[in-house]
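#onboarding

Welcome to the new folks! Below is a worked example of what a typical request in this channel looks like: someone posts a single protein sequence, and someone else replies with the predicted structure as tokens. Don't worry about understanding the tokens yet, we'll cover that in week two.

Example request:
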Amino acid sequence: MTGMKQKKKAVIFDFDGTLCNTSPGILATMRKTFEEMGKAVPTATEMRATIGLPLADALRLLAHLDDEETRLATETYQKWFPLYEPAGTTIYDGVRETLAALKQRGTRMAVCTSRDRESLMLIMRPRGLHEFFETEVTGSDNIKAKPLPDMVLALLGRMRLGAEDVLVVGDTTFDIEMGNAAGCDTCAVTYGNHTPDRLREAKPTYMTGNFRDLLTLV
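Example response:
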């Protein structure tokens, strides 16, 4: 872990690639979507690089889609999502225990994700993860997406917290740039969808490959 710790009142977590390894299900659903549409299937590396963006933006970027194709691709993805993605999702090592320890300490926690609320809860509720978080901002809220700061700023307002009180944790440059732009300290986890070298370019306050290290930061 790099960086000097500073105690925080709350933590805002990205979901995909930070709390849960959702990439196998996401990639399987994307492959099915592009195959059904008769589009060339991007490489796994190309698809993983877009995780964290709003779904429509990711699909548009990957297959160079126009507006109507993007709408159709999004509908197709959402059709196949319940079959592929939840079954292909696992909780990262140390996440459940660390969240429980943080909650026991009184640390407030929220989720900030580009995925819609329905799909988030489809994954979180059966695994009991929703119980750790007091609120969430998702793609369903129609707030300007990562890497802009608006989603974090919305959570700060809702939770009545200052940026200095909050640590933003994520696995992509989109998360780190969002948190930095909101004035928060940020922690990049290196086991997710973006490489450590790419994450360093976003200038996170901290970097770690072990989720349990958060217990020393907040």
